[in-house]
Design goal:
The protein is an alpha/beta fold. It has helices spanning 17-28, 35-48, 56-65, 99-108, 112-126, 138-142, 156-169, 176-192, 214-234, and strands spanning 6-10, 31-34, 68-71, 84-87, 90-91, 131-135, 148-153, 205-208. It is globular.
């Protein structure tokens, strides 16, 4: 097992993965990695270059020639974002957070060649430090030997409401019904894709966030991690 402590978190959209992972990383002084942002970048690059989401060769070429960097937000970047995403020296942190890019991310995420490139980048990051990494296939594909595996979930209606409020706070004019439909569509794509689908592994700790506050979930995870790290140090 890697000498660094790895927390792998999977789950559907709007289950609270991003916010919860970000706070956990701050509490533990770990690096937070939002792998979903990388797939959003792939979709955004396709849109910026008038490339079809289904064009595998073009997508791979775009990713190979593009530099993607992620880091915890510094002081001037603390505008509500959970992580800073830089593509070819351009800050795209908010550009990749539209509903259209989100749907595109689920589509390009079904392409094996795209996933292979991005998974390799994710694993390289984790090799060098303690990380909280969240996405759709982290517990079994990206970090199969993670010290702690978590699956965050929540009721459809609750997740859609969270997403709707989040978009409204950014000034995005979208109805709850549209957000709900997009969320259900995204779930269906993620769970039914043939390449690395969203699923719950046997060893995952399943946490339903529907009736829990962010603080309650964070406290549960941090408490468990601290006990695990103490145990590792004494063995």
């Amino acid at each position: 097992m890697n000498s660094h402590f790895h927390i792998a978190i999977d789950g559907p959209v709007a289950a609270g993965k991003g916010t919860i992972s970000r706070i956990i990383s701050e509490r533990l002084n770990f690096l937070y990695i939002d792998t979903g942002a990388m797939y959003r970048v792939a979709a955004w690059l396709a849109m910026e270059n008038n490339t079809e989401f289904s064009d595998e060769d073009a997508l791979v070429a775009l990713l190979e020639k593009s530099e993607i960097r992620m880091h915890n937000p510094v002081e001037l970047e603390r505008d509500g974002r959970l992580t800073s995403v830089i593509v070819n020296d351009q800050d795209v942190s908010w550009m990749i957070r539209t509903e259209e890019v989100g749907i595109g991310a689920s589509i390009v995420g079904q392409i094996a060649a795209v996933r292979k490139i991005l998974v390799k980048k994710q694993q390289e990051i984790a090799q060098t430090q303690n990380v909280v990494m969240e996405g759709r296939d982290i517990t079994y594909k990206v970090l199969p030997d993670a010290n702690l595996k978590i699956f965050l979930t929540g009721k459809d209606f609750v997740r859609a409401n969270r997403r709707h409020l989040q978009l409204q706070s950014r000034g995005v004019d979208v109805t709850f019904n549209q957000v709900y439909v997009d969320l259900v569509t995204r779930d269906k794509i993620d769970m039914e894709r043939t390449t690395d689908p969203l699923k719950i592994v046997d060893e995952a700790w399943v946490i339903d966030t529907s009736d829990l506050s962010i603080e309650q979930v964070v406290n549960l995870v941090v408490f468990k991690v601290n006990i695990m790290r103490e145990t590792l140090q004494t063995n």
